[in-house]
Amino acid sequence: MASSFIPFLTTAFAIIIITLLNSSTKTRGICYNSIISFGDSLADTGNLLRLSPSNNPLHFFLPPYGESFFHQPTGRCSNGRLVIDFIAESYGLPLIPPYLAGKNVSGRDFRGVNFAVAGATALDISFFKEKGIHNPVTNVSLGTQLRWFKDILPSLCSNSSDCREFLQSSLVVMGEIGGNDYNHAFLEGRNVEEVKSFIPAVVREISSAIEEIIKLGVVTLIVPGNLPIGCSAAYLTYFQSSDKHDYDSATGCINWLNNFSKYHNKLLQMELNRIRTLHPHATIIYADYYNAAMRLYRFPDKYGFKGGALTACCGAGGPYNYNSSVACGYPPSTSCEDPSLYVCWDGLHLTEAAYKWIARGLLQGPYSSPPMSTVCTLASKSSGLLLQD
Ligand SMILES: *[C@@H]1O[C@H](CO)[C@@H](O)[C@H](O)[C@H]1NC(C)=O
Ligand SMILES: *[C@@H]1O[C@H](CO)[C@@H](O)[C@H](O)[C@H]1NC(C)=O
Ligand SMILES: *[C@@H]1O[C@H](CO)[C@@H](O)[C@H](O)[C@H]1NC(C)=O
Ligand SMILES: *[C@@H]1O[C@H](CO)[C@@H](O)[C@H](O)[C@H]1NC(C)=O
Ligand SMILES: *[C@@H]1O[C@H](CO)[C@@H](O)[C@H](O)[C@H]1NC(C)=O
Q1: Do 306 and 341 meet the contact criterion of CB atoms below 8 Å apart?
Q2: Within 13 Å, how many C-alpha atoms sit on residue 17's CB side?
Q3: Which of 13, 188, 245, 380 is the most buried (most CB within 10 A)?
């Protein structure tokens, strides 16, 4: 009996989920009514695009960006959807609109807003100005994004107890943020000891943003760590070395750079533990982007990345198809035939296919702590249906 009953249950379950998802724009999402997102280019769904002059578009806003899913550039720094898009889909919510798109939000039909800006740093721009480090992309920091959030809050809820109730039903995704605090310094030639000295301040900035929004009433947060920068085509090109001991023989990634990412992630997790003790009613989920991505570099074939894990799909040649003076989108760069066979999209950002594996690793797999699959069981089931190959 059991053997004929189980497929029936699975089908019934699938129908329930698909019904929930189809009606998601009218009804509430699975587990949460809305998603509020902060971060940088790993999460920006169109804010930097709205901040930039349209007469001289940055390369991110030109084809082939967006080609695989949206069929046009959207402001996302990839060929398609990002981790935040897959999370929204899995929770039965619409893709989160960028704050600067100026959509008219009101409490009733609010389903989310995204404050992430490509190029944004966790620390304020003044920290880097003082050190002579230039941010070539934006002066928006996490502090700016938090101010935007506080600016729109009165349009979403009416007083502090109403706002607490409203925010209790929201999922906040805090990051990834912090990567650019290091990227700009490294790629402008600062040495690792100097850049490493920024880590405690970066982690403090992220943690004070988390505490601030918990105090406003948020009770569920996802906080991503950093990706393994030693596996990125931009870093591999910039820090190319003739000493084979610099490289991990299993992946070809640069060990000391990956150690740097691991160190940031270690301090971030220690800080999250501290905040968890202070706010035991809040659920603070660490999203382990590092290891969720690392498995793609270790076993590219297993995940379908036949184009290679380290070479960028879109670029202008060189050993990793990355040339800092000819960005993807500008001539004479070219794009690969099938981005789904590559982990790396443009040198610094990943392909939609890689982001989908990372999202799957968080939603269903072992790469979130506490596991997202236990915090919201239904969404992890729906993601099983949505995130098929
Ligand atoms: C939102 O829309 C309403 C009705 O169309 C309009 O009166 C209001 O000014 C708008 N608010 C914003 C912030 O755009
Ligand atoms: C960021 O740059 C914009 C445009 O250049 C400027 O209007 C704004 O005041 C700057 N913000 C900060 C915090 O420096
Ligand atoms: C707060 O706002 C809610 C919803 O608008 C309202 O029901 C409640 O009475 C308000 N509370 C206070 C203390 O103003
Ligand atoms: C990376 O970190 C590990 C563990 O802390 C250490 O043993 C190793 O020497 C480091 N490697 C490099 C290249 O920094
Ligand atoms: C990068 O592109 C520029 C401009 O096309 C070219 O002059 C340079 O040689 C390229 N660098 C590498 C490492 O391929």
Answers
A1: yes
A2: 19
A3: 380
The answer on pLDDT for 6 being more than 60 is: no
Task: Report the C-alpha gap between 118 and 313 in whole angstroms.
Answer: 20
139 CB near ligand 2 (under 6 Å): yes
Atom of ligand 3 nearest to the CA of 159: 1
CA of 244 to the centre of ligand 5 (A): 24
Active-site residue set: 41, 346, 349
Give me the half-sphere count of Cα atoms (radius 13 Å) on the Cβ side of residue 94: 13
Q: How far is the centre of ligand 3, averaged over its atoms, from the C-alpha of 155 (Å)? A: 14
179: CB partners within 8 A, 6+ apart = 40, 42, 226, 227, 229
- The answer to whether residues 314 and 335 touch, using CB atoms and an 8 Å cutoff, is yes
Query: What backbone phi and psi angles, to 5 degrees, belong to 242?
Result: -90, -5
Protein residue with its CA nearest to atom 11 in ligand 4: 256
d(CA 378, CA 384): 10
3-state helix, strand, coil in the chain (%, to 5): 45, 10, 45
Cβ neighbours of residue 270 under 8 Å, at least 6 residues apart? none
Q: For 331-378, how does the pLDDT look when each residue is reduced to its tens digit (9 = 90+)?
A: 999 999 999 999 999 999 999 999 999 999 999 989 999 999 999 988
Give the amino acid at 162.
D
DSSP of 170-233, one letter per residue? Answer: EEEEE-S-SHHHHHHHHHTT--HHHHHTTHHHHHHHHHHHHHHHHHHT--EEEEE----GGGSH
Residue 161 CA, ligand 3 centroid: distance in Å: 7
Model confidence at 2, pLDDT cuts 50, 70, 90, reads very low
For each of the domains in the chain, give its residue range(s) and CATH number, in order of start.
33-375 (3.40.50.1110)
pLDDT value of residue 109: 82
Length of the chain: 389
Share of the chain above pLDDT 70, in %: 92
pLDDT digits (tens, 9 = 90+) for 232-281: 999 999 999 999 999 999 999 999 999 999 999 999 999 999 999 999 99
The 3 state secondary structure assigned to 259-296 is: HHHHHHHHHHHHHHHHHHHHCCCCEEEEECHHHHHHHH
How many C-beta atoms lie closer than 10 Å to residue 317's C-beta? 12
Q: For residue 323, which atom of ligand 5 is closest to its CA?
A: 1
